[in-house]
Write a structure and sequence with these properties.
heterodimer; A: 884 residues; alpha/beta; Dimethylsulfoxide Reductase, domain 2; Rossmann fold; six-stranded mixed β-sheet; 26 helices; 13% strand; B: 290 residues; alpha+beta; Alpha-Beta Plaits; four-stranded mixed β-sheet; 8 helices; 27% helix; globular
Chain lengths: 884, 290
């Protein structure tokens, strides 16, 4: 999300899937949309029916490629080089949408004199690099001058040698079609064909869209891949316009929802920042000072923050006690999943609650994960079936191999039966920020209960315990305003939770507790513009405000679609805007760029923005508005600045702050790669966290033991770690066994026939799979050198009716510097024909093909164990660029 | 067409059974994404059991073929040919000496619901009947499991369900979701198809749609697009039309399907000639010895 967040302002898809039907060209890369998002793919097919060109860039010829007009095979992990090549093409061939770029992006902003690009330095680093501590100080990345983010100095002719446009042009100057061929294995004529389609389908009359999924995010530089796509779309003028945009295809039904109202440790609902224990955040005032921006929508940060605290602590939150800020937990370091996995492994964690997840199969370096589970004292697993995370102690490869012994495992496992999605009330926030309410169809069987029941009942019991104690440490629990009405099963009424998320005005007398509206329906807020920073409003997630307003209608439950964008069906945050930044769909003067691509425009007689979507702009701010001395909030932004979350109201081609690994994207090789970096004198992202351990090692570049590139993907027939699909007969029979896909050429080379048993081996593990040989994988050619890629789904495990090895056993744990995500889409392996030895014969086999001896940091760019782990400690995730 | 939402014939309610309207499927592989939702929806709605966890190694097809417990089957056809004007990697770029085309086609196969149905004609118990909408339906409570229908289907669609599956012994195939249709609902496979590769509707409409689609495709470079709708053979037309790229055989479809009963006349004639011959021979023998 920082990729989209720092480029445009918000960490969400900029468009709606339905709108893909209006695209003239769709580039799908880092996603097999037809397979992982088959329902949304109907809109791609609709666009194709209307004549759009569909391009799929992927290491594997997938079901998406089969339906595309052009399939471009790419070496896994080289997307920045490919997209960077397109950026260069657009710039050097003058194919960019000049008026859009000049007015709506920061292309014209002048950078500081002491900013140094990789091209200035002639190495792989920007200015601000601290080699000893392995992090960037982003100070020099900013604009020139005082107040530089809010009121940048601009050169609208784009000629100034230090303007972003010139820097960008220079930065990508070496990403030529020949370089793309050298890095990605894509022949220049194929690359140019893609470039021609994209550029001819962009401009006032036409638009192109880009779709991506975890094929971009799960890399050691995933955020920068998305950034490159953002730069490309901005140069082509494709953001905020119909048929344009970047669609971030999320991996689960409510992944967007799980960051909006986060399951992450470092942000709070609505992308507010979690307080940190650092000195400059000891009081609410300090926290707000640090995180509030002078101009743009984030000038309202205190309103959103204090309203959230009022939702948490109700009447206990007062101005005098900083609205309960002291009761909030404070971040003391990196508490992300992998950090606590290591803590678990080291016996530093006593217990764990696992819900909606199956880490014994789904987590990276899953062998390590299963061993870590065995170090816990207690483990609560809530799932539909007994998944591997609950059965690891008696039924896992480690038990079979004698690495773990049931009688020696002390972990007490509590397996709770849960309600399925039709057996509970709630909502999903899907890929395009659309919140859709889900009613309960039937009661769950037996003792099965929803997650909300579990959390609600747990909270009630913990709060009761806290009230029974005198321990001041329990005060944060005692202070909670836990008011939710229950149904006859003890389930909290989920519409009451939604009402709180929407927010309300606080009057002295709360409404009776049975009502889902705490202060009565008329107190419900109609949107986030009504939020106050004086404690008179409460709001559980400001970006969702308006979802359950004072008319008492749950907008997420609305099912009367009025137009093609789906207004009237569900609620898209923010404020039901379906295509965000849609001010950019009109020219600076407020008129549509073209009749064909009109969406939102200035209605001069009525002095209001109007159109087919809810304007993502101040409704009455004229296009020619100038701040004229206004220094704060939205009033400080002119009428032609569509990216209202950014201080300057512009989209950022160059990110002046908010990213850990550079203001502009640079191509780095995957942490494990068979090739060296052809573009820079450094192979890997310098800021990445390697999570170095003897059990989590990385092969050095071009390691002859592991000559093949391995990438992973999802099958349509299964759902991620398989808990919701492998156990269902009608899905299990469709893809019943683990397999690895390889090319005919590689199969011939290794003497493997289709259907043979093979072993996939790398430094972390060896797993067994069936060989699926086809022409859907192709050897890639690099100046006479041939590199093979193999691809593997990852849905199987040891529990349930299907048995299969765990692809994630092969994955290394690593942390992309901005979001601590691991690299699962590009690594290396060896293929050994034959069946994988089971039981005690496994470890000798692994040792034979991947010696477990040697140093922990085999990769020459990997820091020694104990060395500083990059820049992530110095700030948060910057989803909105809110972090310093 | 895709994107009509609840206005699509796949989604809206109908009264075809009441109005005795002939219905049909049109299945179009050029928009099929091989998701197999049709297979799953069919099994879920009709309570068809799973029939084994067997990995075949044949592309992504682990279903194999239509049968007693598989009423929709998505074929995964890999061919060394170009699809329309599709560009596949370094190939199909039109460079001399480097033309190495490839295509991957998905096609959801189903019972054809023949105009003259071999299974129906062979059924001795009257278990197999023709419905108001022109579909062919097996009434499982009447079926005695004789299996005559199995050998009489020119497409290999119908089959007897083996032990130990539920209702083993009886013959099963696609019901065209007759129960759903009676309630004005569309068949489950068409209802769930995300790209409307399976279109359900009036037979006349889907036939017209199929013709139009072939025209459109041919105009945009799909030179081998054709409709599979054998009206000229003894099946006399079908209620499940397919768009095919290339030859029917590649999809396991007979180019000229015939129902076995057309051989009845010639076999009965042959039998009559033989019988007459026998009578004459016996007569002649008596005459000789007399």
């Amino acid at each position: 999300m920082p990729g989209l967040g720092t480029s445009f302002g918000r960490g969400g898809a900029t468009t709606a899937q339905q709108d893909l039907a209006n695209a003239d060209c769709i580039l799908i890369e880092g996603s097999s949309m037809a397979e992982a998002h088959p329902v949304g793919f109907r809109w791609v097919m609709k666009a194709k029916e209307k004549g759009a060109t569909i391009i799929h860039v992927d290491p594997r010829f997938s079901r998406t490629s089969a339906l595309a007009d052009i399939w471009v095979p790419i070496r896994a992990g080289t997307d920045i080089a490919f997209l960077g090549g397109l950026v260069r093409h657009v710039l050097t061939e003058e194919k960019f949408f000049r008026e859009y770029v000049v007015h709506y992006t920061n292309a014209s902003c002048i950078l500081r004199e002491d900013f140094r690009d990789t091209e200035d330095n002639g190495d792989a680093y920007f200015s601000g690099w601290n080699e000893a501590e392995r992090f960037y100080d982003p100070k020099t990345w900013a604009y020139e001058g005082e107040d530089n983010l809010s009121f940048p100095r601009r050169d609208l002719s784009l000629q100034h040698p230090r303007c972003v446009f010139q820097k960008l042009k220079r930065h990508f100057s070496r990403y030529t079609p020949q370089m793309v061929a050298k890095v990605c294995g894509i022949p220049p004529e194929l690359f140019l064909q893609v470039a021609d389609h994209l550029t001819s389908c962009s401009g006032p009359e036409k638009t192109a869209a880009i779709c991506y999924a975890v094929g971009w995010t799960q890399h050691s530089k995933g955020v920068q891949i998305i950034r490159t796509a953002a730069i490309l779309q901005l140069l082509l003028g494709n953001i905020g316009r119909p048929g344009g945009g970047i669609l971030a295809l999320r991996g689960h039904a409510s992944i967007q929802g799980s960051t909006d109202i986060p399951t992450l440790y470092d942000i709070l609902p609505g992308y507010l920042n979690m307080p940190s224990a650092s000195k400059d955040e000891h009081s609410l005032g300090d926290h707000l000072k640090k995180n509030t921006k002078p101009t743009g929508l984030w000038a309202n940060y205190p309103k959103y923050y204090i309203s959230l605290l009022k939702a948490y602590y109700g009447a206990r939150a007062t101005k005098e006690n900083d609205y309960g800020y002291d009761w909030m937990p404070k971040i003391t370091g990196d508490h992300s999943f992998f950090e606590f996995l290591y803590d678990m492994l080291d016996g530093k964690m006593e217990g764990m609650l696992v819900m909606g997840q199956n880490p014994a199969v789904g987590a990276q370096n899953a062998r390590l994960e299963r061993k870590a589970l065995a170090r816990l004292q207690w483990l609560v697993v809530r799932d539909l079936v007994e998944v591997e995370t609950a059965s690891f102690w008696y039924d896992s490869p480690e038990i079979e191999r004698g690495e773990l012994k049931t009688e020696e495992i002390e972990t007490e496992v509590f397996l709770f039966p849960v309600a399925g999605h039709a057996e509970k009330e709630g909502s999903f926030t899907q890929t395009q920020r659309l919140v859709q309410w889900r009613e309960k169809a039937v009661d769950p069987p037996g003792e099965s209960r929803s997650e909300s029941w579990f959390m609600h009942q747990l909270a009630k019991r913990l709060i009761a315990k806290a009230h029974a104690s005198n321990d001041p440490l329990d005060e944060p629990l005692r202070a909670l305003d836990w008011w939710y009405p229950e149904d006859e099963h003890g389930e909290p009424k989920m519409e009451a939770v939604l009402a709180e998320i929407n927010g309300w005005k606080i009057s002295s007398e709360p409404a009776p507790n049975e009502s889902i509206f705490r202060y009565g329906v008329e107190a419900q807020l109609d949107g986030f513009n009504d939020l106050k920073d004086d404690g008179s409003t409460a709001c559980g997630c400001w970006i969702y405000s308006g979802i359950f307003p004072s008319d008492g209608k749950n907008k997420a439950l609305a099912r009367e679609s009025r137009d093609y964008l789906g207004h009237g069906w569900g609620f898209a945050w923010p404020a039901d805007r379906r295509i965000i930044y849609n001010r950019a769909s009109a020219a600076p003067d407020g008129s549509p760029w073209s009749e064909r691509k009109k969406l939102v425009w200035w209605d001069a007689p009525n002095e209001s923005w109007t159109g087919y979507d809810v304007p993502d702009f101040q409704k009455d701010k004229p296009p020619n508005y100038q701040p004229n001395g206004h220094r704060e909030g939205l009033a400080a932004q002119p009428g032609d600045a569509p990216f209202i979350l950014h201080e300057d109201g512009l989209a950022w081609l160059h990110v002046p702050k908010g990213l850990q690994d550079g203001p502009m994207p640079t191509h780095f090789e995957a942490l494990e790669s068979p090739m060296h970096n052809a573009l820079y004198p450094r192979d890997t992202n310098p800021v990445v966290d390697w999570f170095t351990r003897a059990t989590n090692r990385f092969a050095p570049p071009n390691d002859p033991r592991f000559p093949y590139i391995l990438t992973t993907y999802r099958l349509t027939e299964h759902h991620t770690a398989g808990g919701m699909s492998r156990f269902l007969p009608h899905l299990a029979e469709l893809q019943p066994e683990m397999f690895v896909e390889l090319s005919r050429e590689l199969a011939t080379e290794l003497g493997i026939k289709n259907g043979d048993d093979v072993c996939v081996v790398n430094l972390r593990a060896a797993i067994g799979a069936r060989a699926l040989v086809s022409r859907r994988l192709r050897p890639l050619h690099f100046d006479g050198r041939i590199i093979h890629q193999v691809a593997m789904p990852f849905h199987w495990g040891s529990a349930g009716p299907l048995r299969g090895d765990v692809a994630n056993d092969l994955m290394a744990i690593s942390g992309e510097p901005n979001v601590t995500i691991m690299e699962t889409k590009a690594l290396v392996c060896n293929i050994v024909p034959g069946k994988l030895p089971r039981g005690p014969a496994y470890l000798p086999f692994l040792n034979k093909y991947a010696s477990q001896a040697g140093p922990e940091n085999l990769h020459p760019e990997q820091p020694a164990p104990g060395a500083p782990e990059g820049g992530k400690h110095q700030s948060g995730h910057g989803q909105h660029g809110t972090s310093e | 067409m895709i994107g009509e939402g609840i206005q699509s014939t796949n989604q809206r309610r109908h009264s075809f059974v009441e109005d005795r309207v002939e219905v049909g499927f049109f299945t179009d592989p050029t928009v099929c994404i091989g998701c197999k939702a049709c297979e799953v929806a069919c099994k879920e709605w009709n309570d068809v059991p799973d029939d084994g966890y067997t990995w075949t190694g044949n592309s992504y097809d682990n279903t194999g073929h239509l049968g007693a417990s598989t009423w929709r089957h998505v074929l995964f056809v890999e061919q060394d040919q170009q699809k329309g004007k599709q560009v596949v990697g370094t190939h199909s770029l039109g460079k001399d000496g480097d033309d190495d085309p490839f295509r991957w086609i998905f096609l959801s196969d189903v019972c054809k619901h023949c105009e003259n149905a071999g299974c129906l004609e062979a059924c001795p118990t009257g278990s197999i009947v023709r419905t108001e909408v022109g579909s062919v339906l097996v009434q499982n409570d009447v079926c005695n499991g004789c299996g005559y229908c199995v050998v009489s289907c020119p497409f290999g669609v119908i089959d007897r369900r083996p032990e130990p599956l539920p209702d083993a012994g009886g013959a099963f195939k696609c019901t065209f979701c007759y129960d759903r249709q009676k309630s004005g609902l569309t068949p489950a496979c068409a209802k769930v198809c995300p790209t409307e590769s399976i279109v359900f509707g009036r037979l006349d409409d889907v036939r017209a749609l199929a013709r139009k689609r072939v025209e459109t495709l041919r105009a945009s470079g799909y030179d081998d697009a054709q409709i599979y709708d054998p009206t000229e053979t003894s099946v006399g037309g079908i209620h499940a039309l397919f768009l095919l790229l290339g030859e029917a055989e590649a999809y396991g479809l007979p180019p000229k399907p015939e129902i076995p009963t057309i051989y009845l006349k010639s076999s009965w004639s042959a039998a009559a000639v033989a019988a007459l011959g026998a009578v004459l021979a016996v007569g002649a023998a008596f005459a000789f010895f007399a």
